[in-house]
Specification:
The chain is an all-alpha fold. It folds into 2 domains: 150 residues, Orthogonal Bundle (Cytochrome Bc1 Complex, Chain D, domain 2); 137 residues, Cytochrome Bc1 Complex, Chain D, domain 2 (Orthogonal Bundle), CATH 1.10.760.10. It has 15 helices and 2 strands. Helix 3 crosses helix 7. The protein is globular.
Length: 336
């Protein structure tokens, strides 16, 4: 304890007063990323995580035999596919942009409209999604998994207390378990932990503006977002600036409540510089353009080029390094 306190004091002694003030202010809005995103309903085990990673890459449970979770969420592209709208089985176009799976388990819900409870719910329901796996039934999926000999032992190790562990619920739990380990801390976490020089002067300037302009009122917490819903276009219609080809009414289509019209889950900003294009419909390619649009329609503020450049620099500091384990593609079990 004394050693930690001494190290902290040394760090602060090497910092300017403005750096320390910014750090304290940042800590009012943000927290470092946890190592994992635990779940009481789905306890993490090594065997379950191993199985989940394999299933994330498994295409044989899709109707076309070519669609897996990794198709819309390729890890090498930071868990997003780089398309305006995701393409599922047989090239079917999804209605919205595919959000990254990295750090996704830390959000209040899944999907832009929050119509999936958690990563487990998302993994299960994607199996029958017409624009996702397109499976005709859950029983069909279970039979597919049982027909692949290697899964019998993997499911048994992951769910040792169950007589017949190969179920879609356990499929979802396994994938959810792996996704709950996809935490990607960055230099910003080092900054929050007291290493004020982990960010450059420009990045600190961008962080300060990010807070002062009001971005942090919605993009906060350890993910810098993902913890609330907000109307997209508080001051002006979003499509006026995004040039969206179609107007999406967001959560209104789920709840039918007038106050939910054009409301979406606030997206997390972790790794945002790596996950273009932006917004629910992938209508904007440039992160700098997205920054200007958000300030305009959400905060009624016209940002200067310098403001945008500084905030952009800060957002780039949120890019985490993908660990070797996260990037390694597993070998799928053979059919026989």
């Amino acid at each position: 304890m004394k050693k930690i306190l001494f190290s902290t004091l040394v760090l602060f002694s090497l910092s300017t007063a403005s750096d320390v003030q910014l750090l304290n202010e940042a800590r009012n809005y943000f927290q470092p990323l946890p190592e994992v995103f635990p779940s009481d309903e789905n306890p993490l085990t090594e065997e379950k995580i191993k199985l989940g990673k394999i299933l994330f890459y498994e295409p044989r449970v899709s109707i076309d035999g070519a669609t897996s979770c990794s198709k819309c969420h390729p890890i090498e592209l930071y868990g997003a596919d780089g398309l305006r709208k995701a393409q599922g089985n047989n090239g079917k176009i999804n209605p919205r942009n595919a959000p990254t799976v990295l750090n996704a388990a830390g959000q209040i819900t899944q999907h832009w409209r929050g119509d999936r409870k958690d990563v487990e719910d998302q993994a299960k329901r994607a199996l029958l999604g017409k624009g996702s796996f397109g499976a005709p039934s859950y029983k069909w999926v279970e039979n597919k998994l049982k027909s692949i000999k290697g899964y019998k032992e993997l499911f048994k190790k992951a769910f040792p207390d169950e007589k017949d562990p190969i179920t879609v619920d356990n499929f979802a739990k396994a994938i959810g378990a792996w996704e709950r380990t996809l935490s990607t801390p960055s230099r910003f976490d080092k900054f929050l932990n007291g290493h004020v020089n982990a960010l450059t002067k420009k990045e600190k300037r961008g962080l300060k503006k990010f807070i002062e302009i009001g971005c942090a009122s919605c993009h906060n917490g350890s993910l810098l977002g993902g913890t609330m819903y907000q109307k997209f276009g508080i001051y002006e219609p979003y499509w006026k600036y995004t040039k969206s080809k179609k107007t999406d009414e967001g959560r209104y289509n789920i709840t039918k409540k007038e106050e939910d019209k054009y409301v979406f889950k606030v997206p997390p900003l972790r790794n945002v510089a790596m996950t273009a294009p932006y917004f629910h419909d992938g209508s904007v390619d440039s992160l700098k353009d997205a920054i200007w649009i958000m300030a305009k329609v959400e905060l009624n503020k016209d940002l200067s080029p310098q403001d945008i450049d500084d905030i952009y620099a800060f957002l780039k500091s949120l890019t985490g390094k993908l660990s070797k384990d996260i990037k390694t593609v597993p070998i799928l079990p053979p059919l026989n």
